[in-house]
From TrEMBL:
Pfam families: TRAF-mep_MATH, zf-C3HC4, zf-TRAF. Residues 109-162, 164-219 form the TRAF-type domain. It comes from the Eukaryota. Keywords: Coiled coil, Cytoplasm, Metal-binding, Repeat, Zinc, Zinc-finger. PANTHER family: TNF RECEPTOR ASSOCIATED FACTOR (PTHR10131), TNF RECEPTOR-ASSOCIATED FACTOR 4 (PTHR10131:SF94). SMART domains: MATH (SM00061). This is TNF receptor-associated factor 4. PROSITE patterns: MATH, ZF_RING_1, ZF_RING_2, ZF_TRAF. Residues 239-269 form a coiled coil. It comes from Porites lobata.
Amino acid sequence: MAVPTKGPELGGYDYDFIISVPEDWICLVCHLAMKDPVQIVGCGHRLCNICMESLFRRPSPSCPADRQPLSRDKIFPDAACHRKILDLSVKCSYFRCSWAGELRDVEKHQSSCSFKVVNCPNVGCKEKLTKQELTIHVTFECSWRIIKCEYCTTSFVQNQKQIHLATCTKFPVQCTNKCGVRDIPREMLGNHTRYDCPKTLVQCEYNSLGCDAVFPRSSTTFHSKSQVEHHLTLALRGLESTQHQVRALANLVKEQSQQIKRLEQMTEKYAPYVWKITGFQAVYDRAVTEEQETILSEPFYLFKNGYKLRIKMMPNGGCADPKVHKDFKGKYLSVYIKVIPGEYDSILSWPVTEKIRITMIDQVTCQSDRVNVSKVVDFQKTNWTRLVREEDVGYGFVDFVHQNVLQTRSYLKNDKIFIMVSKS
């Protein structure tokens, strides 16, 4: 297929003119009909404006006709000549196009000419064809056109059709047992052979009771009728076995109930306390701005009739000692245990003798992969006497967890953290 001739980047109009272009309208440089002609004062010679610029790029520009030196001051646009050249009639450059018209209209015509050669717009196609051939090619012929599967409506490139049909879940196939059923959607083939196909081998419904017969599904009724006595014998044996299992299960339930009761008693005595802090980012921001540097959990007991406790947290780090507070603020999350006045203080020993474990829980889904942060508070190393009021003091760790560590793993997840306190 012919490709239209294009004018050079530097030069005049390279078209097929209906009549010969007068010699005075031919550029002295590119020898084509002049584009944007200019005239040299004095000698009167004309040339394309672009071609004139190419002459001025030479060391000593001169008129190509008489070699007289050129000066920009003595060159002017020749509008009259330009208008006459545009009045000339030319033919369309595209092969098989019969259009002819004035030079000034040729570019507008060729931009929409049905014989213009264009690339196929389908990604992957390298075909070049005329505009009038494009619609049919893109719609019906191009192997790179996008089509939809007639079975599942998935879109794909036409030349990949066979590959798609080989895996299409809706493509109709025949039963692999050759039962005669056709046009089964591929995704339903498993259900057909598993539940419907008369040639699928199935086990007797009394298999769990001991009947090991295997036969095509179509023979199910025959087998059931011919083996009534055998199946009845198996059912009686199964009933006897079930009775023994029920008695054993009843004993097992009784034992497990007793174990659960014992576990509940232990849990009541030593259940850990878990503090969930939601909206942690807002809590942390208030600590940074010193709007609220400390947050407290609700009071709790770790075991029955024990010490009443509370968790004190400083999300941005710190403690009561001003010097230490300055060194740790902004670097750590600090956690302390407060022993506060409780209901059973009059019967408890003082100072506190317990060891208490503080744990920040790693919220990763798989428990076996968790790496919790855990530290033990030993109250025997303190001199706390019996409390008479809830003071803002606590014993724990100013460096419980570094702020950088807090952002790793899943200690902080969905804007919440969990602190667990248990007896160590």
